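Side project, low priority. Logging it here so it doesn't get lost.
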Amino acid sequence: MIEILKSVRLSKGSKIALSVWFILLMLVVIIFLALRFMSKDRIDYADMIVDSEITRTKGECKATCSEATPINFQKNGFFEICKKQCMDTNTLHTYRINLVFKNEVFKAQRFYGDIHIAYIEWSKDIEKLGNVASIYQAAKDNGNLEIVAPYQLQVGQNIGIASYSTEFSTLLLQDYAGRLIFLFGLCVMMWFLYVPLRLYLARFNTTYPKQHIEQYALNSALSLRDKLFLALSACIIIALFIFQFWLGFPGYHLISDNYISVNLNTRNLAPVLPSYVLGILYFLFGKHLYYMFLFNLVPFYTGLLFLVWGFYIRFRSLFAIFLIFPVFIGNIYFQNFLQLTSFSLPMLLFCGYAMVLFMLLVPLSARKTKIMWWLIGIVFFCAILWRHNAIFSVFPVSFVLVYMWLCNRGINTKEFVKKYINGVIACAILCLCVVIIVPRNLIFPRPALPANHVFLHQIAGACVPADDSSCFKDEWYYPHKTWSDVKELYKERLLDADPFNVGWGYHDKRPFPSKQFDGLYTQWLKAIFKHPIYFAQHELRFLKAMWFKKEVYMFDSKVLQEKTTNPQFIYFASKFRESERSIVFTPTQEKIYDFLYEHRLLLNHFWGVALSFGVMILSLILWLVKRDLRNSLLMFSFGVGFAGFFSALFIVLFTPLDDSRYMSPVLPLGLLAIIGFIAFMLDCYKRVKV
């Protein structure tokens, strides 16, 4: 390998990177072969803990029997015995048994490692009660067993020890090696794109050099008074940050979706980037439960600092300090106490767009400008991967970035429009590549969990009112489910798509298995075009529920100090310090919080939609009618307004349920849109004055 690298004309850094890649690939192959060899004839042990009692319909029970692997029966006779047990629900109880593996490597690994039960040693309690009716594996790679017993068991009870062997699937090698090969191909592709892109940009800058435009009425040097204001405003904002962190430490985390990230789950139950970021923080600074709280506060107060400083440096007005007003809006302030990616995303967007506005307001040196663009890129990269639908909020920043790149180069109008459209399209392609490629290669293990429930729910929304069963293919259903079950479920869950297809919960209601379906998107489009009025009514129902719904994710002091009784939450929190497992107010803190909560300013989501839409339309009209007013600030106002309004629209179109937290980005974007428009008007006033 080294000799080959020496013969190729590559930079030293490229050769090092290629060598590291090759070493990693060899390590993956060696580790896989070693695991396969070591697992041969190896026996490991796991405690069997009662997780929960299972309730199934007779049809669901029989479907489980057909797929299960028996342990205490021969495979041939098990199905008939299991079917009989399904009929006897009065005297028999079915339990899910969680295997607590004593070895962290040789155990059931989802999609990667199957376990084969060799022998079970029952506890003395079970021996006294008598033999279980049957015990089987519903799946060999999920670390659970199921038992059917003629007596009741206690949740958490240890019923024995299972000895097992492990068989590692070739999917393990295919997955990890495939990722490395994909990474190599991606780097090669980026290299081949980078070289011509760099040449194109160099030629473009030579052909259309950036013209220096003097900043009118703007002194680059800051007076002592200016420096004092900037220092004082920074101290005020830092004090507000410290106060909220002190008041709400460590943040309210008793939300199931939050524990997906905190527990470093890298399946696509939720966006995976927060799990990776938390993993890095755990490694660098230790495990703490307040990191997600900081993900809300740090971007928010950083964004406020950029707004205040940007306005003051540009307009030299003491009124710039009033731009801290978002702190006094209850929707924003009290949501920031809650640890959830749905609330840290709006703060990332707020910070990113505030930094862009700062760049428009304040001229910086070339070095500082480069640093700022790198920081802006990192913030928006994190934002677009922080939630599944964040692309609709992030992409519009390209409107102003491309405009900033092209303006002041002396390009004629026709050529400018052409290059602007090409630039925005290129940014759209880049955003799509990021949201498609990056998460798929961060998800472990593969494959990604299907997200079909939204489309199935929308098909039902179009077809159930028309009683059109042809919208769903017969092969999609469970064997014991039919069109009538879909109709009944849709009428029960008009605003909830989860029971249609998600893999967790709703086992007795779900009409379709949690898997990919052939022709789903084709059937979805057919249903929309076949019954457009019913589909529009379905979406309008979501729009009313989402846009005009009062925010519910703001808790009083009693709720905020609740201690969980959920065994799973207790287990996750037990990995962290005792002082971080819940919010505990002192009497003083509780009085302060209650006072702030009782006097909070509450705006429903329509305020954000209206502000975004109003600024977007007004900016567009001014852009089309007043050519002399066109500048980057007007484009910024349009772009942020566009981001807020179309985020609200696409959230309604693709939301799985009417959960108000999904609308949380809209209000901060609406506020930034109006702030950007105020900056535009002040800028116009200064032009006229000068």
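Brief comment: The longest helix spans residues 170-207.
Revisit when time allows.
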